[in-house]
Structures are given as C-alpha cells and as structure tokens.
C-alpha cells in the first residue's frame, strides 16, 4: 500500500487527480479510523498542489469530509480554539477563500452546536464577496483577458485561476 507522500507524487506526476485516487487516499487517511492533524495538513498541502488540475467533485467531497472529521473528532459538535486557529491559518494562507473552503465552512457550521464567531465572520464576509464577485465576474473576465481587476470602493475584485479574488 502507498503512503500519503507516494500518492501525492503520483498525482502530481500524472498532472491530475482521478476518482481512482480517492479510495487510496481514503484508506491511508482513515487507516486508524480518524484523521490526524498531520493527515489534515497533508490534505491541505495536496489541495494546494492540485488546484490547477481542475475540479473533481469526489476529491472536493473527500477533502471537506476529512477536514470536518478531523476538526470534530473528539468533540463531535464543537470546534476547539486551537482547531479554529489552525483552520483560519490553512484557509487564509493564500489570502482568499474559494468555493470549496466556503463549502467546508458551511458544512462545519451545520455540524456544530456553536460556530465560532471568527469563522462565522469569515463565512459571512466571503458569502457577500462571492455574491458580489459572481455578479461582476463575467464582466471582469470578458473585459480583461489578462485577469486584471477593477476597483470597487475599498474592495478589489478580479479573476485568478478560476477564482473570485476580493
């Protein structure tokens, strides 16, 4: 059986993640019935490496579920302060929240009794920004082949790697 690093190198060498990669990842990540911090870090790192490979819904679903399982492993319905800090560092590392990270926040918020206010603020801010971005994204991309952005008040909105950047 592969280890995580071997699977990552295979995926990167192939230039794509396929539905046949997901069962291998699942076997290794859940080998002991839980998702450790090291494995969750690995999934975020792998996700960063494969962002340009295109979307695979099975990968997105696996990623979201594994991160939720990691964060809710011990408490099942609360997120610890350490986990909140870790998640904010992970999703904020590239300075924008994409639709999968939004889905992750949404799923987490639906699974916990109390959704931390700082995560809720990120979720609400990105939802507002995403709605705004969706309304103007086609205009931006249509008017700018280089992905340049337009200035709207204090928010700069543009296209970057098929993502809305605010």
From TrEMBL:
Top-level taxon of origin: Bacteria
Protein's name in the database: Uncharacterized protein
């Amino acid at each position: 059986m592969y280890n995580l690093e071997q699977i990552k190198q295979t995926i990167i060498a192939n230039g794509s993640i396929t539905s046949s990669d997901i069962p291998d990842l699942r076997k290794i990540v859940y080998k002991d019935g839980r998702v450790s911090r090291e494995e969750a870090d690995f999934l975020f790192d792998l996700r960063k490496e494969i962002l340009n490979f295109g979307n695979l819904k099975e990968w997105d679903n696996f990623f979201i579920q594994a991160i939720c399982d990691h964060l809710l492993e011990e408490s099942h319905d609360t997120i610890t302060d350490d986990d909140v800090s870790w998640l904010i560092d992970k999703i904020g590392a590239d300075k924008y929240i994409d639709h999968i990270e939004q889905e992750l926040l949404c799923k987490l918020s639906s699974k916990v009794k109390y959704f931390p206010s700082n995560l809720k603020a990120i979720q609400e801010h990105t939802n507002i920004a995403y709605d705004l971005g969706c309304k103007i994204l086609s205009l931006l991309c249509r008017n700018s082949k280089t992905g340049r952005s337009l200035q709207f008040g204090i928010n700069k909105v543009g296209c970057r790697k098929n993502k809305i950047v605010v």
